[in-house]
Design a protein that fits this description.
about 425 residues, globular
């Protein structure tokens, strides 16, 4: 609901609670149809590794649909726009579930449908979330913003872990494509229900008014700011690293280590457990050390992931040590991902504090750092994973022997990208923007 005035403290708290409730229910929904389940679903459909790499990039390529969210926000406001697109997003999830029966007739058609459904799913999500950061800035004071962002993602991760644990337990006796398709359908239904919480939020109307302004001029203006440009460049490389690390890590567990769906989902639980801790800790960390330092350390932390895969137990991957190694690795991946996610959004509110500029600034940042990273990551990730499968046998080293070896080589090939992300994050500390 748009009030057309500044919110009182009580109204801010009410809107913050509603967004936390939305994220809590949405966490249940997303774990039924999000990235981890889609990767497992793709593996059940026999999709090639390159298709899985493309699948992981879809959530960033979907940022190309951001302008749809701005147009809807200009008419309905940020909260109502997000609720509308959330319905569309979950309808798109039903398209991905339909790949299961199509696979019986044509596996390539099923893979195509999976990619199309994922693109629409993430595209509508991006259109709905395009003004997520300005909306939270609208319902919180400057001092509250970092903590509110952290709490909302923390609630998401709490429900996500509980849901993944339930799915993992259920899949001990419930396997196959049909089981995963059914879980996706359940998640879509819950996702539609979550939209009612965000629809009830109060907002000032500043975001709606800003969304009516000419978009291109505002985007150019925002990128003229040196602090914004440095943040966008760092954000691009950090997103690129996440795109190329996380989905293929899940695939490596399945095809490189021979984990069944249950063990893979246990590792996904560890990933979101790390996300819980990172989300609640990010606000205090940003206040104490500064957002820039949190981003730089997180970027450097990504360099440990390829090293961890080289040390991953290769013999008897189904054993206890391999499972514990997978749990530790995915806990670390979740921690890094949510530190980056929360800190970049908090940094945006600092470098772009004026609500009139936040709509265009958010679009510019997400198009370049989101859609741009998705396009580059989809092409580069698919190429690297294919080359790693070809090059690993020729190296003649036991470390790169199949089935885990090609994945180890792939992660080592990512080190230059990780180094670029670290350099970009470190260089973003210059200039006058203090974050």
């Amino acid at each position: 609901m748009i009030l057309g005035r500044q919110l009182t403290a009580a109204e801010r708290r009410r809107s913050q609670r509603l967004y936390c409730a939305f994220n809590f229910v949405n966490g249940v929904s997303y774990m039924c149809l999000g990235e981890s389940l889609l990767v497992l679903f793709a593996a059940q459909l026999g999709a090639p590794n390159a298709v899985v790499a493309l699948l992981g990039a879809m959530q960033y390529i979907g940022y190309a649909m951001l302008p749809l969210g701005v147009r809807r926000t200009a008419r309905r406001g940020a909260a109502a726009s997000q609720a509308d697109f959330w319905i569309a997003r979950n309808v798109a999830a039903l398209v991905t579930a339909s790949a299961a029966p199509i696979w019986l007739f044509s596996p390539p058609a099923a893979w195509t449908l999976l990619l199309l459904g994922a693109l629409l799913f993430y595209g509508f999500r991006a259109a709905g979330c395009v003004l997520f950061t300005p909306l939270l800035g609208d319902v919180s004071s400057e001092e509250e913003a970092a903590g509110v962002i952290g709490r909302t993602t923390g609630f998401f991760n709490v429900s996500a872990v509980a849901t993944l644990a339930a799915i993992t337990w259920a899949m001990h006796g419930w396997h196959g494509r049909e089981a995963l398709a059914t879980i996706i359908v359940i998640g879509a239904m819950l996702g539609m229900c979550s939209s009612f919480f965000v629809r009830g939020m109060r907002e000032t109307g500043a975001i709606r008014d800003a969304a009516k302004a000419p978009l291109w001029h505002g985007m150019v203006k925002s990128l003229r700011d040196a602090g914004m440009r440095r943040l966008v460049i760092a954000w691009f490389f950090l997103n690129l690293v996440v795109i190329m690390l996380v989905p293929i890590s899940m695939l490596a567990l399945k095809r490189g280590c021979g984990f069944d769906d249950g063990k893979a989902l246990i590792c996904a639980c560890a990933q979101f457990t790390g996300g819980i801790i990172a989300s609640f800790a990010c606000g205090p960390l940003c206040r104490r050390f500064g957002v820039r330092r949190v981003l730089t350390v997180s970027a450097l932390g990504c360099a440990t992931v390829p090293v961890a895969w080289m040390a991953f137990p290769a013999s008897d991957c189904s054993s206890g040590p391999a499972l514990w190694a997978g749990l530790a690795l995915f806990f670390w991946l979740g921690t890094l991902f949510y530190l980056i996610y929360n800190a970049t959004n908090a940094a945006f509110l600092i470098v772009c504090p004026d609500k009139k500029d936040q709509v265009a600034g958010s679009i510019a940042a997400n198009l370049f750092a989101g859609a741009g990273a998705g396009i580059v990551g989809s092409a580069l990730g698919a190429w690297l994973v294919s080359r790693a499968m070809e090059w690993a046998p020729a190296l003649g080293s036991a470390s790169f022997a199949a089935p885990l070896g090609p994945f180890r080589l792939y992660f080592l090939l990512l080190l230059p990208v990780v180094a670029a992300a670290g350099a970009a994050a470190a260089s973003s500390t210059g200039g006058t923007a203090q974050y």
